[in-house]
Amino acid sequence: MKSMSQLKVAGSLAAMFLSSSATSVLIGILVYFRKQLPFLEVYKPAGTFSGIWLYSYLAWIVLWVLSFAALRNRKEAGSLRTWMILLILSVAAGISLAEASLKWYTLFQ
Amino acid sequence: MTPLEMIMLLHGFLATLVLMAAALIAGVLLFVKDLSEKDVKIMKLVSLGTVFLVFLLDMTGAYGYIPYRLPAPSAKADIVATAPWAHEVFFESMEYVSLFGPIVAAVIAYIVWHYGAGIVKDSAIKRALLVLLALATLLGLVLVGAGVIPTRIASVR
């Protein structure tokens, strides 16, 4: 019985982890800087949310295709533990960046 | 009931369905020792269906977001006037953090499709899936709470 650190993942699965991790950080960055990035207002009625959604998901697809093309033939591309840690930390970083841009002080007004 | 109210009702219903689907997958991982070919097919469909549901959940939320953020009279104007924190912290958290939902759901579905019956046989894969499901469910519950608070003050109209 293997542990997560002993289990090596195939390149195709690593591509999914890699593109998803990078996209999670990208979402956080776009949300954090949304007020300085007017190009994010793709659809005016939805404000910058429209561009954050569109560009981050487009980046996700492109990153997945590129990383899949690069890694698909690799039978072993890192351990499951490494990819899990990368994904969880990336999602946590993305959420932290998004939350850091909110007006938390309104809770104490 | 207006079409907008029906879509927002569907939005809440989809959130419940997604949490139920996550519980179903976690239940299989925790209590099932072996999966037949038919079971694997069902698990693959459930996991892929969950990705679709999470995406649809975001889509219905975005549909309600447009009338929500209109100038007064609108739900956002009412909330900002009475309890600005409900919009600035809770609504905005729901709006942006929900974008991570389809990503985590897609990773879970990919693992299920990739390993098939191995998800219940291999303890490392099972543990990885359970960790992701637990974190996604926790995040989902927090987001449901973050959505309920502003909705209780002024629902989208």
* Total beta strand runs of chain B: 0
The run of helices and strands of chain A is HHH
Summarize the biggest pleated sheet of chain A: none
Distance between the termini of chain A: 55 Å
- Which percent range describes the beta-strand content of chain B? under 5%
The biggest chain-chain interface is:
A-B, 40 and 34 residues
- The proportion of residues forming helix of chain B, as a percent range, comes to over 70%
Order of helices and strands of chain B: HHHHHHH
Global morphology of chain A: flat
Strand content of chain A: under 5%
The average pLDDT value of chain B, as a whole number, equals: 93
Instruction: Please indicate the count of domains of chain B.
Output: 1
Largest sheet of chain B: none
* Quaternary status: heterodimer
Describe this entry's structure for a reader.
The complex is a heterodimer of chains A (109) and B (157). With 109 residues, chain A is an all-alpha fold. In chain A, helix 1 packs parallel to helix 3. Chain A is flat, with a radius of gyration of 17 Å. The mean pLDDT of chain A is 94. By secondary structure, chain B is mainly alpha-helical. In chain B, 85% of the residues lie in helices and 0% in strands. In chain B, helix 1 runs antiparallel to helix 7 and helix 2 packs antiparallel against helix 5. Chain B is elongated. Chain B has one domain. Classes of the chains: A mainly alpha (109), B mainly alpha (157). The interface between A and B is large, with 40 and 34 residues.
Blueprint of the fold:
The complex is a heterodimer of chains A (109) and B (157).
Chain A: H1 11-32, H2 48-71, H3 80-100
Helix pairs in contact in A: 1-2, 1-3
Chain B: H1 3-31, H2 37-68, H3 75-82, H4 84-97, H5 101-115, H6 118-121, H7 123-153
Write a short abstract of this structure.
Chain A has 109 residues and is mainly α.
